[in-house]
Amino acid sequence: MSEKKLAKTGSSSTADEFDYETGLAVIAPDAVKDPGLEPHRTRMTDKSVKHEKAATRQVAAMFFASAIGSAFAIYAYFAFPLTEDLSTVRNNTLLLGLGITLGLFGIGIGAVHWAKTLMPDAEVSEERHQTRGKEADRARAVEIIKLADSESGFSRRKLIRRSLYSALAVFPLPAIMIFGDLGPNPGDTLRHTMWKKGTRLATDPTGTPIKASDVTLGSVFHVIPEGLAELEHHKLEEKAKAAVLLVRLDPADLKESEERKNWSYDGIVAYSKICTHVGCPVALYEQQTHHLLCPCHQSTFDVTDACKVVFGPASRALPQLPITVDAEGYLIAQSDFTEPVGPSFWER
Asked: For every residue of 214-258, which 3-state class applies, written as one string?
């Protein structure tokens, strides 16, 4: 091993030696001293009772603002209900979001302001052991935690404590309300739709009945039950369950089981439009492959083979609507779906 060439620089405050082979300065162990902690800066809240009380009121005001914001979110949710008018969606979302934002920021900023102005800010440096400490040390740690709790003023600053309790009590309510309004587990509600024996298939959104002769080879129709467009109540809920895709194929391409031989009409098949993964609308049809694609998570269904899953996270085929024609040539349903529509997780 070759001997390293070292040269004195004549300075003990920077580099004592220089390694010409590595190009790095060699620092003596005692060349740089530990600067220690910076001098503690006393805050105004530590020197002045007036400033301390002002900071306390400011923290409490932020917590109360959080409670007001959460309460406003609840008010906005009910005061601006959602309708089919898109402006109501915008107003509801905007005001609900502002209330929740104020609820979040009030707690967050209040907690930060509390820590910066009222909690002890003395700098402490201590060594930390990697192994479990002695029981005496652990007991001492518990004492320190209790002391820190006492020094934070949480127990004696009643205004801050009560305002924080108020903010924390009201803050979760908008989330509970919103999630609760998603509704209970649908149970058997997805087993029944507006489709029934004799219901005509109609185009979405006009509600115009469809004749079999209107459906050309390779065409796709978005279909709803006749009469859905005239509903005054629960229109969107019923459409969400009853939406159907109507496709016409060459009858020779269909792979139908004996049970489903009469569920189609001259190559025309109807399947639920609601993806069995998480309920997104299946709306993309590939005419060459006869595949239906869900745009949300790319679940792919084979129309020629009972809409079975050929790709993606969906685990169940799209439910098929049995169809036929009436005396006037209009496509009609033979019955409702024979299985629940929508996501499979409801069954679990």
From this structure: HCCCCCEEEEEECCHHHCCCCHHHHHHHHCEEEEECCHHHCCCCH
